[in-house]
């Protein structure tokens, strides 16, 4: 079986307040409860856009209308697909956000973990590495620090994104691919190897 994944992305800042209000009606009670716990307006916006984008992506696989896709919150985990009912294994999916971008990866054949990070040269990368990386990652970071400025920046964020994507995949092993984006570090990890690297699709929300 050919294993494929789709990668959709939306500029959350371009979504109007009127559309955000309309999308709130798509959320299930457990999603609304989580949305209301966010304090910052940007995080609330990212959450709504992410859940609508996930519904758009899943609807393609499930041959359903995005509004008919229902999700249920799980503490400390990705949401669970409630409807439409799926025969066999549920689709794999993962949501990520950074800055103005919200992204979603989906696959009918494999579990996924996705991370996106805005590459910011002004951040204290050694301090971030010391805080976030384990021993193996620190050894890789030590080698990356010998690279030139842009390569060093790209290397750090690639390492960070892969760590986060593997955590979201929550599967032993895993196969990770870097997807090129002009602003972001993007890594998709999958339980089964993908037949080809996903291409970013800038999605239009309904």
What's this, in brief?
This protein is of the alpha+beta class and 206 residues long. It has 6 helices and 9 strands; from the N terminus they run E-H-H-H-E-E-E-E-E-H-H-H-E-E-E.
Structure description:
This protein is an alpha+beta fold and 206 residues long. The protein has one domain (6-118, 165-202): Ribosomal Protein L22, Chain A (Alpha-Beta Complex), CATH 3.90.470.20. Helix content is 38%, strand content 26%. The chain is built from six helices and nine strands. A four-stranded mixed β-sheet has the order 4-5-1-9, with helices on one face. A three-stranded antiparallel β-sheet has the order 6-8-7, covered by helices on one side. A two-stranded antiparallel sheet has the order 2-3.
Radius of gyration: 17 Å
Question: How would you classify the helix and strand content by structural class?
Answer: alpha+beta
CATH topology: Ribosomal Protein L22, Chain A
The figure for the number of domains is: 1
Mean pLDDT across residues: 93
CATH architecture: Alpha-Beta Complex
Query: Helix share of residues?
Result: 25-40%
The residue ranges in which pLDDT falls below 50 over 5 or more consecutive positions are none
Q: Report the span from N to C terminus.
A: 31 Å
CATH class: Alpha Beta
Number of strands: 9
Work out the helix count: 6
The arrangement of helices and strands along the chain is: EHHHEEEEEHHHEEE
For the largest beta sheet, what order do the strands appear in spatially?
4-5-1-9
Main pleated-sheet profile: 4 strands, mixed
CATH superfamily label: 4'-phosphopantetheinyl transferase domain
The percentage of residues in β strands lies in: 25-35%
Dominant shape: globular
């Amino acid at each position: 079986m050919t294993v494929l994944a789709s990668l959709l992305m939306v500029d959350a800042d371009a979504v109007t307040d009127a559309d955000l209000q309309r999308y709130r009606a798509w959320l299930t009670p457990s999603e609304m409860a989580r949305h209301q716990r966010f304090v910052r307006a940007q995080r609330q916006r990212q959450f709504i856009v992410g859940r609508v984008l996930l519904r758009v992506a899943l609807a393609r696989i499930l041959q359903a209308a995005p509004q008919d896709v229902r999700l249920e919150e799980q503490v400390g985990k990705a949401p669970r697909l409630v409807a439409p009912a799926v025969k066999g294994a549920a689709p794999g999916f993962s949501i990520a956000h950074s800055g103005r971008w919200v992204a979603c990866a989906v696959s009918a054949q494999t579990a996924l973990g996705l991370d996106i990070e805005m590459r910011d040269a002004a951040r204290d990368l050694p301090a971030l590495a010391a805080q976030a990386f384990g021993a193996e990652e620190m050894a890789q970071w030590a080698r990356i620090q010998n690279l030139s400025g842009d390569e060093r920046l790209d290397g750090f964020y690639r390492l960070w994104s892969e760590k986060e994507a593997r955590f979201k995949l929550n599967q032993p092993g895993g196969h990770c691919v870097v997807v090129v984006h002009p602003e972001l570090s993007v890594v998709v990890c999958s339980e089964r190897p993908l037949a080809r690297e996903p291409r970013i699709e800038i999605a239009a929300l309904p």
